[in-house]
């Protein structure tokens, strides 16, 4: 087994095809195909299902991919260690967040200190955040439910209650509060399954003897916000994420308080990376202040 064979396999798997892997590695497609073929022949194992133009890892390929993800991530960490003087002048920090709102003040200070670092932020629910960290597709996650396992390093940001919200011209815009019973009878606009906000609401409603059935299910917080702003129903969000929107009014929920804990997390095995470490340090100092 050679390094170049594992590298060829890894990039075909993460890029989703031989041609894209070749482009990423600045090699020819025949060279990539040859390295993968030799790896499969040497160990008499099929690593990819090849159906027309679609290439997907087999069960064995998926297991190997989990190993090569760790392998190449460790290689990247070694590179960062050896070139630490350059690590904070260039590089990329990948963040996946259930709400970018919680990041704004941290990002501002980070960018002031390290203007050469490219930061990518993409949205996702709790399940997406966790899976992206485990698959090494993100360096840092932001989510509203602190994981219970020991795999993560956690920096707590805040803890705020879940509130309901409606458009300013909705008949309920003047309501001082809404009970779980009242909400169960109203048209609800809720996030997709996998959202911790939705899970907390449904769990509490069930515990109190009510059922929350969404009239509209939307993927992503911004989609819910826009639908509610149109007057189509009632949405839910943590108070910290409500923000400033002249089209919307928040309404307290008359029920046992449901708190959403917002936190930064990363895999402990990756917390030693220079970019991750300085970002978490900034977050800790701002949370403490």
What does this 3D model show about the protein?
The protein is built from 12 helices and 13 strands. The longest helix has 24 residues, at 59-82. Strands 3, 4, 5, 6, 10, 11 and 13 form a 7-stranded mixed sheet that branches. It has a two-stranded antiparallel ribbon with strand order 1-2. The chain starts with a helix and ends with a helix. The chain has helices spanning 3-15, 18-25, 29-43, 59-82, 84-87, 104-113, 126-134, 180-184, 196-207, 221-229, 239-242, 274-288, and strands at 48-51, 54-57, 92-97, 118-123, 140-143, 152-167, 178-179, 188-191, 214-218, 235-238, 248-251, 253-254, 259-267.
* Morphology call: globular
Mean pLDDT: 89
* Helix-strand sequence: HHHEEHHEHEHEEEHEHEHEHEEEH
User: Which secondary-structure class do the elements indicate?
Assistant: alpha/beta
Radius of gyration, in angstroms, nearest whole number: 23 Å
Strand content: 15-25%
Characterize the biggest β-sheet: 7 strands, mixed
State the end-to-end distance: 52 Å
Low-confidence stretches: none
Q: Percent helix among the residues?
A: 40-55%
* Topology, number of strands: 13
Number of helices: 12
Protein name: Aminoethylphosphonate catabolism LysR family transcriptional regulator
InterPro entries: LysR_HTH_N, LysR_subst-bd, Tscrpt_reg_LysR, WH-like_DNA-bd_sf, WH_DNA-bd_sf
Pfam family, one: HTH_1
Family: Belongs to the LysR transcriptional regulatory family.
């Amino acid at each position: 087994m050679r390094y170049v064979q594992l590298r060829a396999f890894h990039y075909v798997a993460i890029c989703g095809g031989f041609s894209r892997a070749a482009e990423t590695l600045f090699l020819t497609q025949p060279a990539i195909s040859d390295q993968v073929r030799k790896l499969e022949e040497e160990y008499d194992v099929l690593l990819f299902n090849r159906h027309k133009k679609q290439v997907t890892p087999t069960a064995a390929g998926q297991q190997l991919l989990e190993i090569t993800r760790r392998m190449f991530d460790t290689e990247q960490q070694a590179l960062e260690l050896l070139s630490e003087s350059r690590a904070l002048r260039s590089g990329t920090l990948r963040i996946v967040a259930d709400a970018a709102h919680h990041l704004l003040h941290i990002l501002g200070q980070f960018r002031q200190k390290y203007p050469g670092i490219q930061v990518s932020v993409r949205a996702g629910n709790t399940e997406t955040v966790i899976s992206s960290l485990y698959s090494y597709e993100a360096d840092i996650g932001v989510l509203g439910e602190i994981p219970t396992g020991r795999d993560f390093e956690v920096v707590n940001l805040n803890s705020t209650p879940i509130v309901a919200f409606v458009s300013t011209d909705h008949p309920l815009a003047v309501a001082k509060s809404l009970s779980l019973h009242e909400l169960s009878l109203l048209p609800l606009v809720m996030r997709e399954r996998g959202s911790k906000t939705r899970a907390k609401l449904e769990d509490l409603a069930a515990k109190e003897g009510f059922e929350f059935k969404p009239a509209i299910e939307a993927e992503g917080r911004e989609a819910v916000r826009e639908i509610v702003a149109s007057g189509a129903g009632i949405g839910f969000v943590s108070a910290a994420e409500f923000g400033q929107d002249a089209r919307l009014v928040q309404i307290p929920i008359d029920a046992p308080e449901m708190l959403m804990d917002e936190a930064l997390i990363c895999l402990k095995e990756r917390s030693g990376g220079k970019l991750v470490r300085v970002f978490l340090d900034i977050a800790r100092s701002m949370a403490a202040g």
